[in-house]
Amino acid sequence: MARNVEFDEQLAVSKAMDVFWKKGYNGTTMRDLTEAMGINSSSLYNTIGDKHELFIRSIKHYTETRMKEALKQLEPIKSPLKAIEKFIQSSVYVITNEPNSCLAIKTTFEVAATDEQVQKIIKADNDFTYNLLNGLVEKAIQKGEITVSQDSAMLTDYIINHFSGWHEFFIIHKDKNRIKNMASFLIKQINQ
Amino acid sequence: MARNVEFDEQLAVSKAMDVFWKKGYNGTTMRDLTEAMGINSSSLYNTIGDKHELFIRSIKHYTETRMKEALKQLEPIKSPLKAIEKFIQSSVYVITNEPNSCLAIKTTFEVAATDEQVQKIIKADNDFTYNLLNGLVEKAIQKGEITVSQDSAMLTDYIINHFSGWHEFFIIHKDKNRIKNMASFLIKQINQ
DNA sequence: CAAATTCTGGAATGGATGTTTCAGATAGTT
DNA sequence: AACTATCTGAAACATCCATTCCAGAATTTG
After folding, report:
1. DSSP readout, chain A?
2. Who among residues 24-83 of A has its Cβ near strand D, under 7 Å?
3. Does any domain span residue A50?
4. What is the CATH number of the domain that holds A127?
């Protein structure tokens, strides 16, 4: 019947995501986006939609990519406790080596409180991480690898809760070692 | 020689702060600000300055107010460990009862990475909290109230680090109990 | 190849943005 | 009370914003 869309939508969203990641939702203009995506605004509006819709796609892309990576990384590890430790350690690595801090956390503090659609996506992402980790914590408790607490739900919340502070800390102090020390202490606490 | 400024600058900054607190730096317009402050933009530019300067004043006001409150609250408590526990508990109270989450944290994630002036103010605030708490942790270790670790610096970082995550958690889940449980576990961990 | 359909680029839209201007009001000083 | 410096309010400013329009190009199907 007629011609097809010329640009790769997935790639375009990924480039938009990079801009939002660096500048935040309100700090990003449509010009920033179309420039980075290499497409005209009319094409953008004809395919994906407006700025808000593009942001939704961006954070979905972000969270989905992260979920896949987490699954891939933890799958081969047999000991639940070792998997939990790996999860903590690779979080520390990402926090102290990526140029921007976590897009999901930035988004939570910038817009999640007033944007229901965004909040749902972020919540789904957090619930995913919770379930992934909670599965490991439960097994570790069963196996007797973890004895510090029998309350897996609380312990899961407790572990995940550290990451946000580490991001904040790294933005302000840019000090890897102090974060590594906190992580070591956390692991030591769990290892009881 | 001539007339004086008509408006109360402290009060005006405090009102501006409320707007930035709710909407963030980029989400706030000059019209939002002048409306909330009840003054004309020309008066604002003639006294305080532009939007950025007003933001600087706002976060300074925020951090200074918070510092004073923290000092006042902890002063009468004699046991260092009890003071630390009080600090944690009142953080939980603020996090789960204030309408907006911490302005300093929101600002850190929104603009601190790219705005040096802002970053300095936030860092000074964090350093203040660090020093306040570290003094207590050191004393508690000396007195033998804390035995879980002898590394007061790390332990201070570790305790402070929880607050950011609790804020994030409350925005997403609005669940006070899960936060209280984490706080109780943290206190139990320190109490060794 | 022709027809039909849909995409693209650039310009245009109206409204919002941060900031400045300026005439007139105001209050401290003499 | 008069003078004078400075503040105030409303409007104006240029620029930027997100979004839309449309003519023409491009591509698929018959």
Report:
1. --PPP-S-HHHHHHHHHHHHHHH-STT--HHHHHHHHTS-HHHHHHHT-SHHHHHHHHHHHHHHHHHHHHHHHHTT--SHHHHHHHHHHHHHHHHHHSSS--HHHHHIIIIITT-HHHHHHHHHHHHHHHHHHHHHHHHHHHHTS--S-S-HHHHHHHHHTHHHHHHHHHHHH--HHHHHHHHHHHHHHH--
2. 28-31, 41-42, 45, 50-52
3. no
4. 1.10.357
Q: Say how many domains are in chain B.
A: 1
Task: Kindly state whether residue B141 falls inside one of the protein's structural domains.
Answer: yes
The distance of B29 to chain A (nearest Cα, Å) reads: 11
Nearest to B109 among A109, A113, A163 (CB): A109
Domain limits at B91? 9-190
B3 in a structural domain: no
Does B167 sit within 8 Å of A165, measured CB to CB?
no
Show residues of chain B in contact with A171, CB under 8 Å: 108-109, 112-113, 119
The reply to whether B43 has its C-beta less than 7 Å from any atom of strand D is: yes
Residue B106 belongs to a domain with what CATH number?
Answer: 1.10.357.10
Residue A155 φ/ψ, nearest 5 degrees: -65, -35
Q: Is residue B119 assigned to a domain?
A: yes
Among residues B165, B142, B161, B164, which one has the least CA distance to residue B152?
B142
pLDDT in tens, B134-173: 999 999 999 999 999 999 999 999 999 999 999 999 999 9
Q: What is the residue-averaged pLDDT of chain A? A: 95
pLDDT band of residue A4 (cuts 50, 70, 90) is low
Record: contact B185-A101, CB cut-off 8 A = no
